Amino acid sequence: MRTDEKTLAERLRALALEQDPVRLRAEAEGIMPEDLAEALSRLDGAERLAILESLEPSQAAETLVELPTEAARAIINQLPDTTVAHYLDILPMDDAAELREELDPDRFEALLKVIPDEDAEEIRRLLSYPEDSAGQIMTEDFVEVPPTATMAEVLAIIRDASQEEFETVNYIYVLSEDRHLLGVFSLRRVLRTPAEVLARDIMNPDPVSVPVEVKDEEVARIMSRYGFAAIPILDLRGRMLGIVTADDAQEVLEEAQTEDVLAFGGVVGDAEAYLSLSIWQLVKRRLPWLLILFVAEFFTGSVLRYYTKTSEKGGDTLLAQLMLFVPLLIGAGGNAGSQVTTTITRALALGEVSARDWFLVIRRELSVSGMIGFTLGFLGFVRAAIPDPWGWNQPISLSLVVGLALPCIVVWAATVGSLLPIGAKGVGQDPAVMSAPFISTFVDATGLIIYFEVARRVLGMYGLSF
Amino acid sequence: MRTDEKTLAERLRALALEQDPVRLRAEAEGIMPEDLAEALSRLDGAERLAILESLEPSQAAETLVELPTEAARAIINQLPDTTVAHYLDILPMDDAAELREELDPDRFEALLKVIPDEDAEEIRRLLSYPEDSAGQIMTEDFVEVPPTATMAEVLAIIRDASQEEFETVNYIYVLSEDRHLLGVFSLRRVLRTPAEVLARDIMNPDPVSVPVEVKDEEVARIMSRYGFAAIPILDLRGRMLGIVTADDAQEVLEEAQTEDVLAFGGVVGDAEAYLSLSIWQLVKRRLPWLLILFVAEFFTGSVLRYYTKTSEKGGDTLLAQLMLFVPLLIGAGGNAGSQVTTTITRALALGEVSARDWFLVIRRELSVSGMIGFTLGFLGFVRAAIPDPWGWNQPISLSLVVGLALPCIVVWAATVGSLLPIGAKGVGQDPAVMSAPFISTFVDATGLIIYFEVARRVLGMYGLSF
Question: Which of A129, A434, A457, B381 has its Cα between 20 and 30 A from that of A205?
Fold first, then answer.
């Protein structure tokens, strides 16, 4: 099973302290770079650097790529140019391109001049595609053959290639002379076909492909939806540039999902390993949303002030009784709104509904929230009507206010909670940013207006006022 | 790119209404089962059934497997036994086993008697493993060879197998006579090795494998972490039973992540497509959490009653002023708590921290929430001290109460928000169930106690009471 990171981190730290690079290298041998990276993210900067420098270079380079951005940046800034250039040289090109994020542009350019020209050019090409596009996660190392290649020739290409030449040999792509994608077939198919048969006679002539400027997240979703192990990437003129493989797509998807979950909880920023962030970085990622929500919540106070200011003498007891139910009502509105936002945002992300479906969604949400609101309203009415151990005696009119305000607030919360993500998606924004805490806070203030307006009308019918 | 489900659904509906199965089958030809399933989930029961029955059987069977559980169950209940048995026969065994969820046990047993014995036995074997275990998502169709097999023999096995015999041929597993896993090598390696070399001489003798009773989600996480395309599954005595492939693992992971996101938003139940659920099903998934939270929120009311009941005559104005800040304070506590819960739950799910790290986490969260609480407290103090347009005149003592209560509530929320998911994980529960709305509601009531106790003490120093 998996290596235990805590134990591994302790062992590595001890060996780093003993300054025993030989034993450290032996200890790390055979450990997966993903596990090493996680163990390193538990150590401090100096320890990480000492350990990484003791590792065998290819293991060190692969571990560096697996480290969270902040940690990798800190280490690279302390490594000599020759070491970083060596890493760039060892790594697969798409991983090497990823290291650019962690380097300042001047240093990166300088390093590209040190490594072999061909590699530098491929890295430059990958980086020339738009940020977060398919082009930045693809590899150019796929097997391509002309339509007239025989199975024997295909096998010879795979046999004679070095281990690094192709990222995968499981799919063979058939390209025309001007590099248009004509078809694809699997290595398995090659093995089961006589040696003299031509590529064009066995290829699937209708492969699914994606334009290079499509968002990496979209490419990853398409691949995951259909279970593709690799997908061809074409330029704007339909010429094949490379392939995206499932493992890279999977990584993109996981990062996006982590970011969405964090957005739902009201945390901004990139998905980074928890332990690799400093206290100050954690504060920076959490405080902005809290501040926005905090200032927005000031509005709730203003609503309360407005209604209490207009309160008439003699209505003070009634007002105090109304206030008792404020947390219950805004809590119910906030929770109902969060449920709707979460559900709709998820359905939008998975492509189950699109922004064009807004009417369908609203109709469903109004029915659902109507039923939920009625249930909570009934419960709220009963609760408000029950005599209280602290001796409050509440008039039945107040129970009616609570029972009527609840369905109104819940239906309102569901409307806001479904329209905001759909609206965000409609104008091309990430709906997860319109996340649950935002809806809750918005519904807090507006829900209070509904509550006091219902109270004014219902109590008015009983000849009461507050 | 992807087929548009809305348009596709409309076209299929029109053809179903026209009762033109020939044109319908032609229209659906070449459309991926995933797209068909999504289009079908937008239609009603009768339309779905009519369309599915018109499709070519293998396409219909694959579409059925991609449908959400509820929709698939409704359709299967209306299909004749012969059709369902035919589907079970066509499908890969792991997909066929999945259909059991949608069938009642007696009917499933009856169907197993109709399909070929060998298939029925494999389905029964897969289903004998614990629910949600690796055993239920693995396939027995992997390439196995003895250590003495030559490369030529390996190629012959792959060449002579039918298309359905192996789920993947990219990895070849070397098994001893008593079925222990000795090693693994890739098909690519076979092609690059002379025909007479033996399997044992080129195999990687130390493959990563997983015991069969491990949770499917855990298997999927291991595969995704290391980017494995397939992983061997062993029984308790170390004999190899099958492999889990990346596409099945990916599906498990997506379902788990969707469930986690929904749990964060306070929605219970399986991950099902939004549009495939009826209004009543949506209510059933949302109401339970809302009811629990609603009843829990009653406690806030009790706290308010307790403090307002003890309030002395003459303190009414002060109490009313204290009440104005209640939504602001419980909002800040709830949001801060949600952030922490979301972050920690995520870190636990990704294995970045384990339950044993609780002390490390608490130490970090205390520092972070201390800084955040101080910032919000300062802002709250300023806000409370500002003269109000509605003419409230608040004593400085009240601003002090708000400014001091805020850091206490935020730190308390962070403590609860980090300890609850860690505690849940520690006792083997899914931490996502201790989700954001739960923490918010809990912090609402307890935060009020903090607020009024701070108020009692601070106002007491000024000789005031409420």
Answer: A129
